[in-house]
Design goal:
Strand order of the largest sheet of chain C: 1-2
Structural class of chain B: alpha/beta
Keywords (chain A): ATP-binding, Nucleotide-binding, Repeat, Sugar transport, Transport
Order of helices and strands of chain B: HEHEHEHEEHEHEHEHEEHEEH
Shape of chain C: globular
Structural class of chain C: mainly alpha
Strand order of the largest sheet of chain B: 2-1-3-4-5-11
Mean pLDDT of chain C: 86
Helix content of chain B: 25-40%
Domain ABC transporter (chain A): 1-220, 237-485
Shape of chain B: globular
Order of helices and strands of chain C: HHHHHHEEEEHHHHHHHH
Largest sheet of chain B: 6 strands, parallel
InterPro entries (chain A): AAA+_ATPase (IPR003593), ABC_carbohydrate_import_ATPase (IPR050107), ABC_transporter-like_ATP-bd (IPR003439), ABC_transporter-like_CS (IPR017871), P-loop_NTPase (IPR027417)
Radius of gyration of chain C: 23 Å
Biased composition (Basic and acidic residues) (chain A): 496-510
Oligomer: heterotrimer
CATH architecture of the largest domain in chain B: 3-Layer(aba) Sandwich
Largest sheet of chain C: 2 strands, antiparallel
Low-confidence stretches of chain B: 1-35
CATH superfamily of the largest domain in chain B: Response regulator
Largest interface: B-C, 57 and 60 residues
Number of helices of chain C: 14
Number of strands of chain B: 12
Strand content of chain B: 15-25%
Chains: A alpha/beta (510), B alpha/beta (346), C mainly alpha (371)
Region (Disordered) (chain A): 480-510
Chain lengths: 510, 346, 371
Amino acid sequence: MANHDIDITVSRGTVHALVGENGAGKSTLMKILYGMQKPDEGTIAVDGEQVSFGNPGDAIARGIGMVHQHFMLADYLTVLENVVLGSEKLYGIGDRARARIREISDAYGLGVRPDAMVEDLGVADRQRVEILKVLYRGARTLILDEPTAVLVPQEVDALFDNLRELKAEGLTVIFISHKLGEVLSVADEITVIRRGTTVGTADPAHTTTKQLAELMVGSELPSPETRESTVTDVPMLTVDDLRLTATDPDGVVRAVLDGVSFTIHKGEVLGIAGVEGNGQSELVDAIMGMRPLDTGVLTLDGADISRTATRKRREGGMAVIPEDRHRHGLLLEAPLWENRILGHVTERPNSKGAFLDLKAARADTERIVREYDVRTPGIEVTAASLSGGNQQKLIVGREMSHSPRLLIAAHPTRGVDVGAQAQIWDQIREARREGLAVLLISADLDELIGLSDTLRVMYRGRLVADADPATITPEELGSAMTGAAGGHLAAPAGADDTRAVNDPDGGEDR
Amino acid sequence: MRRVSKFAVACTVTAALAFTATACGDSSTEDTGSDKDQMKIGMAYDVGGRGDNSFNDSAARGLDKAKAEFDAETKELTAKSGETPADRETRLQSLAEGGFNPVVAVGFAYKDAIDKIAPKYPDVSFGLVDSVAEAKNVANIVFTEEQGSYLAGVAAALKSKDGQIGFIGGVDLPLIKKFAAGFQQGVLETNPKAKVQIQYLSTGSDLSGFGSPDKGKAAAKGMLDKGADVVFAAAGGSGAGSIEAVAGKPGAWSIGVDSDQAKDPALSKYAATILTSVVKNVDAGVYDLSKSVHDGKPLTGTQAYSLAKDGVSLTTTGDHLKDIQAKLDEAKKKIVDGTIKVKTTL
Amino acid sequence: MKKFDKERLLLGIAAPLLAIVVAFLVTALVLAATGKAPFNAFGIMFDYGLKADSQVYILNKGTTYYLAGLAVAVGFRMNLFNIGVDGQYRLAAFFAAALGGALTLPGALQIPLIILTAMIVGAMWAGIAGVLKVTRGVSEVVSTIMLNAIATAIIGYLLQQGRLGHLDEAGTKISTTPLPESSRFFEFPTTPTPVWGFIVVAVVAGVAYWFALARTRFGFDLRTVGQSGSAAEASGVDVKKMVVTSMLISGAMAGLIGMPTLLNDSFEYSGDFPVGIGFTGIAIALLGRNHPVGIALGALLWAFLERGTGKLEFEGYDKEIVGVIQGVIVLCVVIAYEVVRRYGLKRQQSKVGAELAAQAARNSDQQEVSA
């Protein structure tokens, strides 16, 4: 269940910010508001009138428009063509439309040239085209999904000026973000969402980023704190000076991982904290062998696996709970028993020699379904027909069934209901007791602090800070994740001052 | 579950209904309802069939003539591209089975099919155009394309100012090479200093060279640019492009093929530059076979439609050949009496 | 549990059946629009198609089509669109025919040699596209289409007198040297015409295809890549290697397509060797849902329709009508599969939800299953 008991009131002519961690339910809420998803219960009212949106068209008709995080523009069309596309009936496709675009652009200071080719525009200009597109369709309420994520600071300021113009003209803006500083500078009201529910509202005039952060991550510490340490001094996985580069569409080679070094011992859970997109996925890919390393050495239980194929690494005891289970962990249209074979086709009980052992694989799937409490009517149903939590339980069961030595768990409980979440946590803890080494990557700070024996913070492809989960607070971790703090995050790093020692090299195992 | 079953059952029932509704009329033997007295001529065309403005059409003209003259019933079937030998056999068999006599197979592709089918129907006369089969009841209607082309070569050599002559073949098939061989020989034996450029528009099983006027035009342009002033295109429909290109160069001549292209409605505007056309009288072959069957004395064996029998000839539309007619007649005479042997391969 | 299998089977059959029925209805409309009685036409086709010699024809032709369908299906199972089956089989048949004509070994040696040559040539030709895809990112659709054209040109070049060609007496037909009698494949002595022995090879190929896909590790990897490239990579499949391997297999299978014609019918490769069967194979693989049995039914249906055309043309119908039926069937199949697939998936999801709810109610368990 992504969202429950969300209460939010947005006043006309204001900028209303919606803040929350990744996965807190912001996007689901916004999809509901824009008619892309239907709420199971509850109501939405616009101007006091109760409405129900079956699709985005209904929302637009009610004057609600959305600017997506990923722009939806056709590169090889002009701005004019992009704007009129799908709304040809409003002002035609010719001069009338051009005039209207100029009018809107001038009214809100957007500075959009109707005849420019979209492919020639920069990111900020494209964003303004998106905003104009929504206004052109008559929107009076704009939803902006993480609009600043793609902008540099100067562009952010310009965007905020535009938003203030819109507000001055009586339009309403719903602004979704997790960048607290920005939120405080532009919003008139703030609603905080955590774990799919509204946890409070804040007045930006009387709130600090710290208070907001506390609201965002919640002050409760994670449930069962089994702190008895199972950490041994036998290294299971060592990562030494890992560097990985990628070429972005402009042809610029960029390091996505740089100088990453750490060691996970048997029985140890190493947690990696970080805002998404700072290199965590790449780290997982590199350890799994899906991307060749530029430099660096990987050692699994004493054996150098830097150049080993993914399949060999998996056979060698590497288990993976992938970040995106639909893309990397499951065959959605295949039955459960085939999904049980996935990733372990060369291992028993799935195969004997070159041939599959369907009978044994089926039987073992039944066992996983039973032992890991996968709620399904049978093992012949497709993976797609299971709920997210049950899909995840199946994956955990599968990965745990091959006596792994290292478990890579990326967001293991994302999108999973509370019951399944606790279960998965228990399973990870239990395996840890038996000597499993775990690399845990999560956006859920409670999960990270609760499960990890050691914590590292990843920022722009580097491990910039380390912390002791026994003493660290989510707020401190959160500020390190934004790059504001580095080095060893010592316990209470000053009650009022969340800024810790800025020492990028201090926290790395060299 | 139940809904699915219903769904599937509905489909099955619909299908079954559709199938049974059509499976009426349970006849096991072929009832052709043939009228003993009426003549029935069956034609199996090559790919393209009637209306290809070329080879098949020429055969169709012969059929039309026979049909009118003998009040015959006709049946025309056409080959598809991508056929197997079995498809051609089926086609001939269904015609023979249907009481058609003669059955004419147009094109050398039918050779193997004739070999298999003809012996099974000894009472039916088969015609095979452009190839030679062994069976006794087959008339092999073959043409001496090289002889007609030789004459065209003589004409080209005499009309060319500096002996630069071009030959455009549609596809590099042996049949087209016969044209090329005869043409080149005719040119060189008339003017040993002349030069013949030979170009094919496509190769092997890619038959596009017979139907691409643009390719014909480009090839002809290239030859004209290199100084050629007479271009012979034995390239089916592609020839139109060549004729058009040649008409654009003052003093240059084109030579057509298969039918009198100066009389072709689409090309008659270029008639002033069409020197002549090498005509292959397939219609005569088809007509002769039909007539022989009608008269009860069916032709068999190889029927060579040679220059001597006017099976191949040059057209004289526009009288462009008048000044050299004497030399052409002399060459023709030498071919007919065997003084000149025309090669069939280059 | 088994009922899900049964349901799948029903849904699997429903789609092609639906497509065929719709296709016939559309054709009936077309026929009616041209002023001909539609059911009479179908009557002629079915009457004629069920005769003994028609059955033999359908089996023989179906053998070729079946192999074509399999060759395409191997690629399809991997999400590879091997358009080049056409060029692959022609090139393969050409070289096999040339080799077969040049040798005079005992049949027991020469026939396998010819077949092996064809498979290797086909595999190599398809392999080029596979290697280009993994090393240079060239879409296999583009490269195989181009390789088709190149294959045509190579055959055109080599099938000349003085190279590998051989001119007949009439001087009009050029072909490879005919195979010796000993290299002809056996036939089943059925009346009135024999059924080609190569049908046995086709059946073996079908069984091998099924077994490899459903029962081996390799087949599992191949299907995984086809269903989700990202999941396959994460699960340890070397996707690049699989691309090349499956192109090789698809090409080797394509090499077999020309064999029934070569070894049972023409015994030589000439300019009129059938072309375009690779494209027919695409339609048949679609029709048969890449399933070995489905492909067999598709191949037989296709052959049946072609058999019917000849008769329809003979009866004075436009021969293009079967082209219309075939085209409409393919269109309908693509649509019907997607409709049925979505329907099936949705149904299963809601059914699973319902069953779980019932289960939960029975156990009076407080645990709730999330949506």
